[in-house]
Amino acid sequence: MSSPFDPLLDRAHRHASAFLDDLPQRFVGARAGRGEMMAALDAPLPQQGEDPAAVLDLLAVQSGRGASGCAAPRYFGFVIGGSLPVALAADWLVSTWDQNAGIHVISPLAAALEEIAARWLLELFDLPRESGVGFVTGCQMAHFTCLAAARHGVLRRAGWDVEADGLNGAPRIHVVASREAHVTVEVALRYLGLGMRALVQVESDDQGRMQDQRLRELLPTLQGPVIVCAQAGNVNTGAFDRLRGIAAAAHAHGAWLHVDGAFGLWARASGEEAVRGLADGIELADSWATDAHKWLNVPYDSGVAIVRDAGDHRDAMTSSAAYLIQTGGAERDAVDWVPEFSRRARGIPVYAALRALGRDGVADLVDRCCARARQFAGLLSAEAGVTILADVVLNQVLVRFGDDDELTRAVVAGIQADGTCWASGTTWHGLAAMRISVSNWATSEDDVAVSADAMLRVFRSLREA
Prior knowledge:
alpha/beta
């Protein structure tokens, strides 16, 4: 007997397959903007409703115009990874099962899979096995979660209960971060009520690394609770702060050390000693934020918050109510580790990806992307007038054309209009640059060769003009 879901799911599968089949050779950017999308999709709210099949067809047709190919092998913008086939398929099951992953009693399946995925991540990253782990939407909420635990921890040690008494009258917290810190760290401080004036910035070097000697000089001048935010993987260069020395300085001062490892934490899984060495000392931190929808290549949204002191983590996040059925045993209630209650079971695609890849598969994924980044740098730097602005140590390549801001921005715009690949622009130490991020499991040597050729073709055309 057929289900009422069958015709629509079959139709959705056909549309999805067509989209995925087209990814490797499609125009990588979006072909239409707001005006075209609104013209095609906007309408008065129907009184009687429309045929569901027609609604799906409308969405599928417009995805070819208004959706970018950010899952494509030649998309190199914003450190966006494509979805592994097993992770995408698992995510379809997550939507089908429609589990609220907030507490164990609602879904023992989701709770168990997330508990196992959390343990596997700690093993893969070789972080303290007793750490708390929460599956959040992305690194923004991972920072929020970890820094909430940090706020709780440093104020607890100062004799203040921030969950009970709030911040009014609490000891002032200083948050120290590099000038190259990602904006999501700053946003988390706003969300947590610490404010931007709590932020003390430390100068960075020419690769984007925090100057740890300056940190050591700064810390003794700060009175009261301190949180230090370090970076594993600069968003422009991929550079890592010198984490071992930073950890020693932070802990000597009694500070909490948080690490932004949005994509850089995955260097711990590399099979190459040089790549793993970038993260030397990262295990000494008190909390870590990363994304699975970047280098593990699971579908959006999937971030991970990890806190060494599981008690601080839980106390900062947990909630309870008389109507809930919360565990007092070994079972995992996800609400203890994340800001949300009702949410999809986003840890399940992480479980599927890790189980399908294994340690060797994750290492290969990371190392292939790093190799493709080095390939990009080699092909582009061979051209006169093209400069690689920073050492290529991970999966990021920072490129400048003609040593000219206007020309560099024109090349970025030209590449996006060309459609062979997609890369984004940035500003690095006052200079316009193109940023290439290689994060997709499907990116091949041929993809890089074709993309570099397109970039140079656009550059030569503009230079000659």
